[in-house]
Each structure stands twice: as structure tokens, then as C-alpha cells.
């Protein structure tokens, strides 16, 4: 085998390892799609890079927002609006005390997994974003999904392409 | 080009895209190594998968803990102690109010990047872990690094392989 072929094989093995990790990443991904948008929990989302973290103390919640490679590239380049194919996933958990460190809290029981998928044409009525909100892998109802864009529109707005989360340095 | 060759090329391109993302991921990685342990900020850590999130309200901090592929695999398989080559990185930020959502907080100014690297032989005196604590890419002093294992030993303990963070489902 020549050098180029060896390099290709090595790269293919590396890609396969990462692909396997993505494909088999734990999570509650299943085949249920959200109403209105038909958005599913993306396969491998638990292996997506971290975009930022957030908390709403009054909800007793702590969250991690992750994104696919396209999302990370867009954040890093400052691309707005986000390109088609961007996927953002917010993982929310009840915060629970950290065993061993008084005053510290960590992610406990998961509450929701919420997904935003960019497709400017398909989701043109909602700023180009399709939404999915899942509890234990099951999508919420129509009313819950009608509220998604209304809130992102009013509170994040078009200038941020309806996305709350900034990339945490 | 035959099918196998095409597949190898496609895989190589995918691997190259991910490798490029890892290699050029933003962050404060530089060449400075921690005292005592000689641990550096790992290249591409900002593209590592999310392990869990945490907060210490009295510090006004919110954190995200990420890990390399070996770390994620060990968490998923429940492997303890973690295998050599495991890398965990805690990213800490001041929490700041989220513009547009009253009562919500997000990651703001970064405070520290803290690294744990597993090498059972090299770091046998400290539970097999090497530590690095960085502010703006610069490692802290000897005293700071002497405190790492003392605290992980006393508060997380050997039964958790001196690691506080659990994998957030």
C-alpha cells in the first residue's frame, strides 16, 4: 500500500470512530417528530460540541446548548443568518447538589431536549427555523410548538436570527 | 475509481473536516504547561462533546465539562478507573443575564479552563491524574496545582476515580 492509500485508510478509520460515536451517542433520540415542523431529535446529538450553558434558577434548571459542525462553523465565522442544515440542541436538566462540594450544583434528571433546525425555505414562516421540544423522547403538543417561534421572535429577534445562545469562548 | 476507493475518499474528507474543526477550534490553547504535572490545554478541546454542566452560585459561575472520545466512551461504558489518555476539560464562565429572558443566565466572561489528563504511571502520586488550571491560557502557580488532587481526593474520592462530573443523560 502506498503512502496516500495508507493515509486514506487511517483517515477512514478515524472518521469511522467518530461516526460510530455520533451514531451510537446516548440520548433519547427516537423516531417521533414534532407537530407543525416534523423535527426529530438528531442522531448523535449527545456528541455535538458545546456552544454554551445557561440556567434559569426559578425553574431549578441548568442547560447545555450543543450544535452540529455547521452550527459551530457559523458561530465561529459570525455567519448570520445561520446556514441551512444548522442544528442546535438544548439539553435541560433539573439542577441537583454536587455530592462532595457544598454550594455546587450539577445536571440531574433531564427535563427537555429542544431542537432547532435551519431550513430557510421549508420553515420560511418561522424565520427559517423548525422546532422540536421533547420530554423523554416524546414531542410536545401543537400548542407548545406554536409558542416556540413566537417567543424566539419576540425575545431573541431577527438580528440574532432568533437564536438566544452565543458561542461561549 | 471503484466503490471502495470512493468510500475511502468520502470518509477521508469527513475525517479531514472533523480534524480541521478540532485542530482549529477556538479557545485559549497555547503551549504553556502546568507546574508539577506539565499538562497543557488540549488542542481542539472546544469541539469535545459535552459531559455535564455545573454551577457554583456563590462564585457567580457556570461551567461546562467536556471530554475527549476516550472519556465519553469510558463514561458510557461505566469504565472506572478511566483509561489512560482520558482528557476532561472544565470550562468556567461568569454567569451573566440572558438578554431577552428575565431570570435566565448564560455563560459570560471566561474565568478558568481546567484540565485533567489520565496517565496511571506518569501521575501515580495523584491517582493517575495530571492537572492543569489556566486563566487566559496561562497556567496557575505551584500552590494552585498542589491543591487540585488534595481536593479531588478528599471530595470526589477513589470510588469515583477522583472525578466529580457524571455523564449528564
Write down the overall mean pLDDT of chain A. Answer: 87
Largest interface: A-B, 57 and 57 residues
CATH topology assignment of chain A = Chalcone isomerase
Give unreliable regions of chain A as ranges: none
Instruction: Estimate percent helicity of chain A.
Output: 25-40%
Describe the global form of chain A: globular
Strand content of chain A: 25-35%
**Integer-rounded radius of gyration of chain A:** 18 Å
What name goes with the CATH superfamily of chain A? Cytochrome P460
Distance between the termini of chain A: 43 Å
Could you explain how this protein is built, in words?
Two copies of one chain form a homodimer. In chain A, 27% of the residues lie in helices and 28% in strands. Chain A has 169 residues and is an alpha+beta fold. Chain A starts with a helix and ends in a 13-residue tail after the last helix. Chain A contains three helices and six strands. In chain A, strand 3 and strand 4 (105-118) form a beta hairpin. Chain A has a single domain, classed as 3-Layer(bba) Sandwich (Chalcone isomerase). In chain A, strands 1-2-3-4-5-6 form a six-stranded antiparallel beta sheet. Chains A and B meet through helix 1, strand 1, strand 2, helix 2 and strand 3 of A and helix 1, strand 1, strand 2, helix 2 and strand 3 of B. Strand 4 (105-118) of chain A pairs antiparallel with strand 1 (50-56) of chain B, so a sheet runs across the interface.
